[in-house]
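Changelog entry: the DNA primase record was regenerated in this release. Current contents:
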Amino acid sequence: MVSPDRELWKCFGACQDGGDVISFLMKWENITFSEALKELAQKAGVALESFSFEDRQWKEKEKLMQMNAFAAKYFHFLLMEHQAGDKARQYVKKRGLNKKLLETFLLGYAPQSWDSLIKFLKKKKYKDEDIVQSGLAIKNEKGRLYDRFRGRLMFPIINARHEILGFSGRLLSSEAKEAKYVNTPETPLYHKRETLFGMHVAHEAIREGQAAVLVEGEFDMISSFKHDIKNTVAIKGSAVTRDQLMLLKRFTTRVILALDADFSGAQTTLRAIKDAESMDFRVDVIQFDSGKDPDEALQNNPIAYKKTLQKPTPIYDFIIDLALKRHDPQDPYGKKEIAVQALPFLHSIANPIVKGHYMKKLADILDVHEHDITSMARTFDKESEKKRVYQRTRNTSPDDRYSTLQKYILAVLVQSDHTLKVCSTIASQIQPEDFSIPAYKNIFTYFIDYIHSKENDQKNFNLTSFTATFSDPLQAILDELFLFDLSVVPTMDEHDTEKTFHKSLLELKQYALRSRIKGAAQNIHDADSITALSRKLAQVEKELRIL
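Regenerated structure tokens:
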């Protein structure tokens, strides 16, 4: 509730927060006091010349935003007017993007040059360390800088306040032996899991339409905007995150997932559901007939796509349908697998009426008593309680911690959208022997074999391709890994995921080495082995202390 007369606000919901206009903006936009004060001053037309921003984080972010703005104008000029952008102009024309769309989204072109942007930014008086920190440049082993984005169509990532947080660069040719997309890395300004492409043009339409359509790629979003579906935003990466849902919660409590129709798209959909349910979102899903993604569907038949959008599939119907496609509902064991796949989601529904509806529907489809479905669902209460206990304590037993680390590391690998080269680098740091759980050891062995078979492939890791030859038991475990909530692992640093993951790899190695030393100690003739393993353990523990 907001009281304009008293200039106060109060939330009577779960958070019970309240305060003045500055605290409201801080809470609503998730920004600092300095950021809120500056934004309100700009809206009121008040100058803050005498105000000294001591907030170091704000100064750092402001510098990065200014640098990104210069870079965006530079890229945009090259695309719109310079001869260096000829091929890029032909490409966007072929993709059906007119001048107005290019200007609305401030699209640009990064030339095939090692340092043209660096030279441009240095003329603007930016230092090497600032340019590297922004993610626009990379420093090599010899200390020399080179442009991160080269020969790419550039998509600025702009938030609802029209601030440029980072960039996504797409190759113009599918034949090049590089990753199709290169994105700004994690910076003080840009966090992929908190970002949605197109928010600067979509947020008002989302608020007015009381729904947000989530697509996977930038072209999907721009194509939707072009066809007047303006409440559309694109996720960054292959997963809908809790932070992205929190961002959308400011404007709506309904999301329509229009993700790619392949297996990974379906898995991505599933992984977002529990977060959405816990945040009281209504979630629907678009299933495509005329194309494998929204861009293709709109190109093939925009009228059909819009009709589909008006009648999306409720998420829990989608989950049941997905389970039915994978298992035979006439076979007793097929019925069991359908229930195992669908029940964790149906049982998590908060509203008792909605939950009762879907429990009855599943029982009818499987031709079993509703009591049997309810009885099976109770087993998930026990599992959930175990998880809650685990989350409440950081003093986990060593065996539990070792087991969770194995699951966490595999979950990060299968949920990633890294290039295969990056996956190979990660995989080289541990061995199958570091896993004590046989199923996890087998999956990691498959992972290594898959990476090695694709060693000359520059594409990103593809879950569908990876699981093509999996047996059913491992497939079920892989589904569990893909749905694993990475935030349940203690000591997670959400803004430094690279450091967190590296620490987890070292911890896994630490547990594995201790286990091997313990095993070797049972053999009196294994003194040399114990010495060698102890040295490795000492090195790992030294690295952990540094982190």
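The longest helix spans residues 56-80.
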